[in-house]
Amino acid sequence: MMSLTSAPGSRPLRRAVTPVGRQTESPVVELNVGGEFYTTTLGTLRKLPGSKLAEMFSSSAKACLDAEGRFFIDRCGTYFGPILEYLRSGQLPTQHIPEVYREAQFYEIKPLIKLLEDMPQIFGEQVARKQFLLQVPGYSENLELMVRLARAEAVAARCSSVLVCLVQNEKDDANCADALRSLEADKRSVVKFGPWKAALDIRDLLDCMNMDIEAQGYQELRLPTQVEDGMMMSTVMTSIN
């Protein structure tokens, strides 16, 4: 479900009512990133104008603070450290490259993204992933629709879930047409992927969806995949980071 609550286990949050620039008299900034604490400067956080991270700490941005007054970012704190180190000194990470790469995409640290994409761990994965997704017709459009539906539901109800239907071949596509119409008549948010001709691993497809959802600033909770009327269905529940 898409919710605007804090991450499990985190301290209660309070929303600042003044811009970041006015909230912070000192250039030194204390951060709480997913429960891990960092100390840095506004200059470091704003080092790359146009990045999402710089925008978070622009003079016009509203600050989200934890109970101790630290600036709170609801992302995995473990992989924020390497990004901060890159902004400080230009040092590239040597461990957890895929995870740091995803966080760099979220914060839109473009120079770091480009450098990581040249590393073997990312280059090989990116090439294989692009070839994989080329076999799924309309993947990008369906992913965009899924996020748009979830966002629209969240505006009205502050929570949402999207039913993802995976149809592997044309025969199953024809068999499940009535089931899809019934779901849509019941006002269920449904996005269909497929059919496709190549032999694809459903789990790999769902993992690609998860990666792309996280890159847009969402967290995904995927319920177990079920087979109904010739189609595989998985309810994808998201929350805003």
- Number of extended strands: 10
Approximately how much beta-strand content do the residues carry?
15-25%
What would you call the shape? globular
**What is the count of helical runs?**
11
Percent in helix: 40-55%
C-alpha-based Rg, rounded: 20 Å
Task: Give the N-to-C terminal Cα separation.
Answer: 12 Å
Instruction: Point out poorly predicted stretches.
Output: 1-19, 21-25
How does the major sheet shape up? 5 strands, mixed
- Spell out the helices and strands N to C: EHEEHHEEHHHHHEHHEHEEE
Strand-pairing-aware structural class? alpha+beta
Q: What is the arithmetic mean of pLDDT?
A: 77
Tags for this model:
241 residues, alpha+beta, five-stranded mixed sheet, three-stranded mixed sheet, 11 helices, 10 strands, globular, disordered N terminus
What does this structure look like?
- This protein has 241 residues and is α+β, with helices and mostly antiparallel strands.
- It has helices at 20-23, 42-45, 52-56, 80-89, 97-107, 110-117, 120-133, 139-157, 170-175, 177-185, 202-215, and strands at 14-19, 28-33, 36-41, 62-65, 71-73, 161-166, 190-193, 218-222, 226-228, 231-240.
- The strands form three sheets. Strands 6, 7, 8, 9 and 10 form a five-stranded mixed β-sheet that branches.
- Helix 5 (97-107) runs antiparallel to helix 6 (110-117).
- Mean pLDDT is 77; it is low at 1-19 and 21-25.
Task: Sum this structure up briefly.
This protein is of the alpha+beta class. Helices cover 43% and strands 22% of the residues.
Summarize the SSE layout with pairings.
Layout: E1 14-19, H1 20-23, E2 28-33, E3 36-41, H2 42-45, H3 52-56, E4 62-65, E5 71-73, H4 80-89, H5 97-107, H6 110-117, H7 120-133, H8 139-157, E6 161-166, H9 170-175, H10 177-185, E7 190-193, H11 202-215, E8 218-222, E9 226-228, E10 231-240
Parallel strand pairs: 2-5, 6-7
Antiparallel strand pairs: 1-4, 2-3, 6-10, 8-10, 9-10
Helix pairs in contact: 5-6
